[in-house]
Write a structure and sequence with these properties.
By secondary structure, the chain is of the alpha+beta class. Helices cover 34% and strands 15% of the residues. The strands form 5 sheets. The protein has a 3-stranded mixed beta sheet. Strands 1-11 form a two-stranded antiparallel ribbon. A two-stranded antiparallel sheet has the order 3-4.
Length: 292
């Protein structure tokens, strides 16, 4: 098989054009609905006893498989997976230990939604981030861009694998009027509650105000990473719970700023690169056709 120089330059130009088209495909904007009216959850780590009732409720409602050996009586997964959408972890640090719940954060401006090239992930007007497996092409870009490392891929299935994550029980419970997320409805201590985001923020501020010595004076998720629909209260620094300081700008906002810097370089550098290839071809006396 051979290809001439003209065809090579056409293909290279097409590749540059495709690269320029990508940002338009991944741009996403937050829901237009009042943020305070969107659904959210508040997790108070000072109340959590690590019983894993939320994990079991999620597993039972979604019909997922236990992670542990069938001979063990207590199912206590240690990491999120395609079968575990939420779990409780124990973090230890110099300021003490604390339980923490992990699941999709349902960001106000989700990086996964922005990054998905086929719109398999969607930020609903009510707040939850849901997923359509029929649209998914398995690129796993959502895994790469999520700052909380949440989406998981089905690696061990024979059929076409899909992404799995918490969907806030939005379509299966909330929209049907059954109740809130199964994990929140099952929590026996009230460490996890759900409702409108504005109401939960007011409740969190009230708890901090009435018990200043009990909590870190910050509601994680209020503004972190542009804001999330899963909010946290803690007695220890949030870094101790594996919740990094991500700043207050959303990931899509940051990536758009990066694109503004990178794209001009592509626009300017692409033609220069192609010109250099052509110049080199002329000076170097390349053959008219190249074997591949």
């Amino acid at each position: 098989m051979t290809i001439n120089r003209r065809d090579f330059l056409k293909v290279a130009g097409l590749a540059v054009g495709c690269a320029l088209a990508v940002p338009d495909q991944v741009n996403a904007s937050p829901s237009s609905k009042d943020l305070n009216e969107q659904f959210a959850m508040l997790y108070d780590a000072t109340i959590c006893v690590g019983c894993n009732a939320c994990t079991m409720a999620c597993r039972q409602w979604n019909g997922t498989e236990p992670e542990t050996d069938a001979r063990q009586l207590y199912d206590a997964p240690t990491e999120l997976s395609a079968d575990t959408f939420t779990l409780i972890q124990l973090y230890q640090g110099g300021n003490g230990e604390s339980f923490v719940k992990r699941q999709c954060m349902h960001c106000v401006e989700p990086a996964c939604v922005s990054g998905c090239p086929v719109h398999a992930l969607e930020k609903t007007a009510d707040g939850p981030v849901i997923y359509d497996p029929d649209r998914c092409i398995g690129c796993r870009y959502c895994q790469y861009v999520c700052p909380f490392h949440v989406p998981r891929f089905e690696w061990d299935v024979a059929r076409f694998p899909v992404i799995a994550k918490c969907h806030f029980c939005y379509e299966s419970r909330i929209q049907k009027g059954i109740g809130g997320p199964a994990c929140a409805d099952r929590c026996p201590t009230g460490a996890l509650i759900w409702g409108k985001r504005g109401d939960l923020l007011a409740e969190a501020r009230k708890r901090i105000s009435e018990n200043p010595g009990r909590y870190v004076d910050h509601i994680y998720g209020e503004d972190d990473a542009g804001g999330t629909s899963v909010l946290y209260l803690s007695a220890v620094p949030f870094e101790n719970l594996g919740l990094e300081d991500l700043g207050t700008r959303s990931i899509p906002e940051i990536s758009e700023g990066t694109a503004e810097l990178v794209l001009p370089g592509i626009l300017i550098g692409g033609p220069i690169l192609l010109g250099m290839i052509r110049l080199t071809a002329k000076r170097g006396g390349w053959e008219e056709t190249w074997p591949l």
